Amino acid sequence: MKRFLSFILCMCIYMTSTMVAFAAEDIPEGSNISIVQEENAEISTRATYSNSVTIPGGSYTNGNFTVKNPHTIILSTNGTVTLQSSNPDARVNVVISGNAVPIFNQTLTAGDSVDFKTSNHASEYVVSYFVYSTKRNNDITLTVTLK
After folding, report:
1. 38 vs 51: CA distance, rounded Å
2. Distances (CA, A) of 122 to 63, 64, 96
3. pLDDT at 30 (0 to 100)
4. How remote is the C-alpha of 98 from its chain's centroid?
5. pLDDT in tens, 8-58
6. Please, what are the domains in the chain?
7. Number of CB atoms found within 10 A of residue 112's CB
């Protein structure tokens, strides 16, 4: 019985697909229907989400913010963590986690830009930061970009 039902289902799928193919060829002249086939269609670029925080200079502080994951179904998400400051002594420890699982943990200095890749399927990533070395009153900008 299972084989018979699977055969019927396969035939339905087959007949449905062939009917559509034959129908596309029999378009009457003078109709407003057109069929366009692109030979070298490009795959669209991946979505990108970014979030940043500006930390006032001269303060030893910690905090966190979130960045939306653009790909909860695709197996991997690429990310970049960037630390910008005109203070060369600025050092910030950054921990990124998804569903309470750490996926990035690194200390960054001014001017650093670090790439990472993860297969975590969390809908949002939590970015926790701790500023532990700043000697001047120059602001620090921490940016996380996911694509």
Report:
1. 36
2. 20, 16, 12
3. 55
4. 13
5. 887 777 766 655 545 545 545 554 444 444 455 444 456 788 888 888 877
6. 49-146 (2.60.120.380)
7. 16
**Tokens 């913010």 correspond to what residue?**
65
Residue 4 has pLDDT above 60, yes or no: yes
Q: How far apart are the C-alpha atoms of 56 and 50, rounded to whole Å?
A: 20
What phi and psi values does residue 77 have, to the nearest 5 degrees? Answer: -125, 130
User: What helix, strand, coil percent values describe the chain, rounded to 5?
Assistant: 15, 45, 40
Per the CB < 8 A criterion, the answer to whether 141 and 111 are in contact is: no
| pTM of the full structure | 0.64
d(CA 23, CA 70): 38
